[in-house]
Amino acid sequence: ALNVIAGLDGRFFVFTESCIFCYGSNGICKWQGKIEMESQSIQNAQLISDGSLFVMQQGNKACIISPYSQILKKFEFSAKPIRACSSNSNLYILLDNRTIKNFSLKDFSEKKQLSVPEEIQISSNKDDFYFGIDKANSNSFVVLDKKMLVYFSEIDSHVKKRVLIDVPSLKNAKFLTDGNFLLCACESWEASFFKLFNTKKTALAETPKKAVQGKLSSVTISSQKELLKNGSYGAKEEELLQAVYEILESYYAFLT
Asked: Of 95, 109, 149, 237, which sits most exposed with the smallest number of CB within 10 A?
C-alpha cells in the first residue's frame, strides 16, 4: 500500500509500510527515511499547516516530521490517534476515545483537551469521517460523518450548528469557509454548500509594513547547484533556503 501527500512547495511525500520518500516536482529524491507504521495507518498520515507531517505509528504512537526529514516531536497517547488538523498556531489530534488534544505548533507543548460531540460517529476510516478546523471563525471545529455535520467551538466544545447531510463518501473531503458559509467537496464530485451564520463580514485591518533589514549571505552557487542536482540532501535544504530567504529579504529592503 502507498500513500502520496502533496507538500506546500511542490514537494510530495510517498509512504510505504516502512519508509517515507520526499521528492521534488522535478522527480529528484530530496530524502528518504525509515519509520515504523501500521499498514492501516499509512493512508492516515496528514500534512499540517506549517508543511510538516503528522504520522500515526504503531499502537498509540505518532510523530511530527519536518519537510526536511527531521523528527520534530514524538507522541505516545492513552488512546489511538486517528485524525489531525491544524490552525496557524495549533495542532489538534483526535483520539479514538473521542478526545481532542491541543498542542502548540511552536514548541508542541500541550494546551488542553476537548471531546467530540456525541451525535457524531467517529471512525478511523477516512471514507466515513472528516475532522477539520475553520480558521476563519475563531478556530471552530468541523466534523462530518455521512449523515451529519457538526460545527463546534474549539474553546469548550459548544455546538454552534448541526446540519443533516447525505453523502456517499467522505474520502478526501475538503471544505472552504469564510466563517459564514461552508462548502464541502468530496471525491465523488458531490459538493454541499451550507449557510452557517448571518454575521456581517468585518473589514480586515491593514497590517503596517515593517522595515526589513538584512545583508547578503555568501552562497557558493556551483556547490549548491550540484547538491540540488544529486538529491538526498535532507536537512541541508533548509540551510540553503534560509540563505536564499536572507538574500530576498535584503533585496526587498533595498526596493522599499
From this structure: 109
